[in-house]
Amino acid sequence: MRPAQAVRARSAARVPLGLCALVAAALLSSGCGLHPTGPTDGGRAPTGVAPGMTLYFVDGDGELKAQQRESGRLGSVSDAVSLLLTGPGPTSGLRTEIAPVPTTRVAVTTAPDVLTVVVPLSVDEVTPQGIDQIVCTALGAHVQQGGSTGTKVQVRFTLGTAESEEHRTCPLIG
Amino acid sequence: MSPVLGRLRPRGLRPRLVVAFVLVTVLGAAAAAWAGAGSAATALVDGAQERITGEVADRVGAAAPELAYPPDQDALDRLRRDVGPNTLVTYEDMRSADGTGPRLVTDALRGAVRERDRITVQRVAADGRPWLLVGVPLMITAPDGGRTPSGIEVYAVRDLSGVQDQVDALTRAAAGASALALVPAVLLALLAARGVLRPVRDLRDTARRLASGDLGARTAPQGADELAELTATVNEMAESVQTSMAGMERMRADARRFASDVSHELRTPLSTLTAVVEVLATASDRMEPDDRESVGLAVTETRRLVRLVEDLMEVSRFDAGSVRLRVEEFDAVGAVRDCLRARGWLDRVELEGVEGITLRADRRRLDVVVANLVGNALRHGEPPVRVRVTATPDEVRIEVTDDGPGLPEEVRPHVFDRFYKADTARARTPGSGLGLAIAAENARLHGGGITAENAGGGGARFVLRLPRDPGGQEKQEEGS
Q: Any idea what DSSP says for residue B194?
């Protein structure tokens, strides 16, 4: 073999070796380490702040009407329903279809699709529109906390009744 | 290429195969392991980021309903405490920061949070550690589901060192797996190398045997690959070489037998002819001068013919390999002197050498060699012809030097050839043309040799070297 050919053969053998080293280096560098990134999306933002609560009463025309209470914070669903039970107040020009009760303790449990509101009322103490008031207030607070508008509301009354098992929706929301 | 690399480059086929196998296997294993480790690491990092982001969002979401809105500094501080350490909460111009983390929050992240109104994450490196920045805009949702930004933004900074450690562990495991592939790769390479190298080695052995003269050497081709084809080709080559060599050998044997037969056939009529010529020569005194001259010529030529036939028979015996040495111990200088005296050359040749150099050789053959060398010098060179006998512990040197014109360069390689005549114009010399060839054969038979060269003064010098004990040397050769 002439020297020139020998040199060519050697350099030809060097190419794959260098290639291998490159590939190995690329593999090594890409395999590990947490590299800085740019801003990337991290999902839906949380919600839940509000200047006050939204309660639903009945106006002079017999329609459901939202009333803002400037409580300075949104509060929980039970807070809103409890406040609803205390009535619209004398100066608002609104009335309630829920009978006054001595206690306003309300319990709320949340299942994936159903909001269960346990009220200290029997079914005889509320009109159907009064039930809508409870449903809309609970659902409104739930949505403001980030819940879905498609959530059903189950209002459980004292004294077992078929009305307690019903899954309801608010005519104004969803 | 650097000399070090050149030296490291494996030369043999086996190491080259092993290196190639190991490279390919380890690279493949490394690629697979790294790809696996890479996707596992990505999943790990993504999972950790999602967990951290979800946790921050949950804490913000849980705290939000109890948060006063619009918030005062107290509300911001409370929210920050709810989210955890290393957190920054801003609302318009107010801010509440904790820990060293918030300084890492980038303008790009703030911009993205405000622009998209969605949670935005960014990974940064600081102090040699990876950090995750989670930017959370807090939204206001109307009872009917409409969303508007509240202006409250929460930036949480979380250390990702734990994840980094897990990724590093994954990488180390991948490297270990790649290294494990080394062992089977080497074993496989050795196996493959053996499969390739065995036929190559067989072929090499066959070629070696062919080169050393064993023309019957063959390799049985195995399989149907390129190596088997090569083996078959080598076998064919050996076959054809063997055939032509056998043909040449037969022709040479025929020629030798012919020369031997001819010389034998000539001997009987020649002895008759010699006897007749001798009778004629004794009667030549009574002849006319012309007749006497013719008879003299006939005698000379007949003697020359006899000599030629004898030399031919001697050469035939050498060729047939039927010459046996009759070794005896004698004094070298004495033997040379006897040789010169027997031919009447003592007064024409200067003999130099001390008595007492003992030599074990065939005395009759030494006599033939010396006679041929000295006769050649007397015929072709100029006087004085000198014979010098010297000895070393191993061999005896007999130098025959003349003062003639020496050997021309083109003649020197051929002086020991049969019937070689240096001077074509003087074709009719008394010699048979076989003398030096026979001398060389005799020397070789003793395990020695003759070299022809030109002496410093211009004359030719023939040097005969004989081992002092040819039998002993043969034994040594057998032993070695």
A: H
